[in-house]
Amino acid sequence: MKQIRHYFEKTDKISDADWNTFSSKLVREEFPKKALVLEAGQTEKYLSFVESGVIRFYIPKEEQDLTFAFVFDNEFVSAYDSFLTQLPANYNVEALSNTVLWRLSHKDLQDIYAQTEIGNTIGRHASEGLFMEKSKRELSLLNETAEQRYRNLFTEQPHLIQNIPLKYLASYIGITPQALSRIRKRIY
């Protein structure tokens, strides 16, 4: 849980009273490898912080799932559109490895907004981080070649290359596993 406070205090100091209110609402939950954290058709009830593990967001398809996001240690994770609207998500959220999450319910977050001075800052930091990752990915898909996207992953997020099966990486950068294999042969 200390990781969460450290995450917030990179930019804003949290009083002990606000931290105690916030942390008292957190629930620790473990997910085994390959477990669904959220299934398509369910409504996201939590904003979560990854203590350890790897999370994958994907749209299930008959031929091949479409992976569109990964989340790692010390990052927030949520099917955020569903969390905000309280409507069902149209994608799955899966633990790619044994994962530990600290979870805050939608209702409890609303209480924190109302009860603490730092509440809105906490919500803002979480949502800004999720938004920035989404925007970066969208711009990458629109402006870069598949090889550029792969090279960027390799330099900016080497943990992706080390911890994610190649079929998911290929889907994430918008190509087939065979095309990724050709790119990797050219690069190495």
Structure description:
- Pfam families: cNMP_binding.
- This is Crp/Fnr family transcriptional regulator.
- This protein has helices at residues 2-9, 16-25, 80-85, 106-115, 119-143, 146-156, 158-163, 166-173, 177-187; strands at residues 27-31, 36-38, 46-52, 55-59, 66-71, 76-77, 92-95, 99-105.
- It is α+β, with helices and mostly antiparallel strands.
- The chain has two domains: 2-142, Jelly Rolls (Sandwich); 144-188.
- The strands form two sheets. It has a four-stranded antiparallel beta sheet.
- A hairpin with a 6-residue loop joins strand 4 and strand 5.
- Helix 2 (16-25) packs antiparallel against helix 4 and helix 8 crosses helix 9 (177-187).
- The longest helix is centred in the C-terminal third of the chain and has 25 residues, at 119-143.
- It is globular.
- It starts with a helix and ends with a helix.
